[in-house]
Task: inverse folding
DNA sequence: TCTGGGGTCCTAGGACCC
DNA sequence: TCTGGGGTCCTAGGACCC
């Protein structure tokens, strides 16, 4: 039987790398990409990491580095990152038989039975770089958890030139590497679990690798036991080459300031509801209910706190914007409490099902067909003329709340009027 | 002044049933 | 006096991921 071999392709500092593709001035400079509302740093260039900027750190804490160290901060441009991610996924797919797209910047691939996986990985990495200018690292090992570790080694040791195969090392060498890595580097071990493990005397990856999975299963849980087995080279996590059916959907945003008026909450919630319904239709899903929620600012401990939510069941599972908007308004009325300063609001759609499994409303089948074609038309118009060209009237009669996004790059790959352009003079053209 | 958004999985405990 | 045991389902909360 062939032993399985898994590769993990991880795009380096992905959001920053995407911005650099279109703006060479960003090369060699410390750069961060900020979360929505320009709140926190969610991606950092190597130079920014070297300045000690941690993942998720609030922007205001590091903003002084702009003047002292030339730090550049950009608002996140997910439309751009999504397009580049799709391109790279297609390049990977053309090189390997099986691919699991794990996140916007990571893919697991099946390298079992490939004669020279290291060479294939090196070629693939080079092609991604040549075709998109996005640097990446590839870790190779017998399980996903080990491939993650191998990737980490590839990232942190430039001498391996971006590709590291854990299985080409001797067991002694592997153990030596594991001894020098903190247990929190292991995929699935977060801050809290690391703390619990430290109390049990498990500090390094090596300590966890040598631990008894059955004992820790009883002491802590099955997730940890699986992690240990994976670390020891016994696969517990399969490659998901087919997309896993989505169970729930959340669309939510923080406000850039604090919101008190019900109409401001309504504006945000209805925008989120329209977006959620659109995503349902894109993914061919229906929801049996809609949950609206809003809460106050958790860091403002001096303010009274409130976490409100309300579930509104639908008559039949739906992906219809107008039905969902109606449910959201109903939920908001029940959930809203005056006198609080709200920081965030959103909608959740639970228990999603494919729409082909949906039972139509037998009391009124004609109307549901008409509504389907109405929604198709809505999507087509918005796709052709831009998002929010056609919206339900009820979303207009509200106080709008804007999101802060002061440092955003253009949508170079998604909008004609923002497309990347190159200009050059006549002399230059004559040289061609 | 200023702290993201979108997911998954697991577990414990309560309600309920026979 | 004395009050079972085993199963399922649901939900909330915790932990983790990118």
Result:
């Amino acid at each position: 039987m062939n032993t399985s071999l898994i590769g993990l392709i991880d795009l380096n500092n992905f959001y920053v790398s995407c911005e650099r593709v279109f703006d060479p001035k960003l090369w060699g400079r410390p750069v961060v990409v900020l979360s929505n509302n320009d709140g926190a740093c969610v991606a950092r260039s190597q130079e920014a990491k070297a300045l000690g900027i941690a993942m998720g750190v609030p922007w205001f804490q590091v903003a002084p580095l702009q003047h002292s160290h030339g730090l550049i901060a950009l608002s996140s441009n997910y439309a751009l990152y999504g397009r580049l991610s799709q391109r790279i996924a297609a390049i990977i797919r053309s090189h390997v038989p099986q691919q699991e797209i794990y996140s916007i910047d990571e893919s697991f691939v099946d390298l079992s039975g490939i004669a020279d996986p290291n060479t294939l990985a090196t070629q693939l990495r080079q092609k991604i770089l040549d075709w998109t200018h996005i640097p990446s690292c590839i870790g190779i090992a017998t399980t996903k958890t080990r491939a993650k570790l191998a990737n980490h080694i590839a990232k942190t040791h430039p001498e391996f030139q971006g590709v590291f195969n854990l299985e080409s090392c001797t067991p002694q060498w592997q153990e030596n590497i594991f001894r020098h890595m903190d247990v929190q580097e292991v995929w699935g071990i977060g801050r809290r679990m690391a703390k619990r493990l430290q109390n049990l005397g498990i500090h390094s990856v090596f300590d966890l690798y040598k631990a008894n999975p059955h004992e820790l299963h009883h002491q802590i849980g099955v997730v940890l036991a699986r992690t240990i087995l994976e670390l020891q080279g016994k696969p517990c996590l399969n490659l998901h080459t087919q997309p896993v059916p989505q169970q729930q959907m959340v669309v939510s945003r923080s406000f850039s300031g604090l919101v008190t008026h019900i109409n401001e909450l309504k504006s945000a919630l209805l925008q989120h509801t329209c977006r959620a319904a659109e995503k349902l239709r894109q993914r061919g899903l229906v929801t049996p209910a809609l949950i609206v929620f809003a809460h106050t600012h958790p860091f403002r401990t001096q303010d009274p706190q409130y976490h409100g939510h309300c579930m509104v069941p639908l008559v039949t599972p739906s992906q219809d914007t107008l039905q969902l908007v109606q449910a959201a308004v109903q939920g908001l009325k029940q959930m809203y409490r005056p006198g609080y300063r709200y920081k965030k609001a959103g909608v959740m759609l639970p228990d999603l099902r494919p729409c082909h499994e949906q039972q139509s409303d037998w009391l009124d089948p004609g109307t549901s067909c008409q509504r389907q074609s109405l929604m198709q038309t809505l999507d087509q118009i918005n796709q052709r003329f831009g998002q929010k060209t056609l919206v339900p009237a009820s979303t207009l009669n509200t106080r709008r709340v804007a999101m802060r996004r002061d440092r955003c790059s253009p949508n170079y790959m998604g909008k004609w009027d923002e497309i990347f352009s190159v200009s050059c003079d006549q002399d230059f053209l004559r040289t061609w």
Summary: Residues 42, 102-106, 187-193, 223 of chain A lie near DNA strand C (CB under 10 Å from a C1').
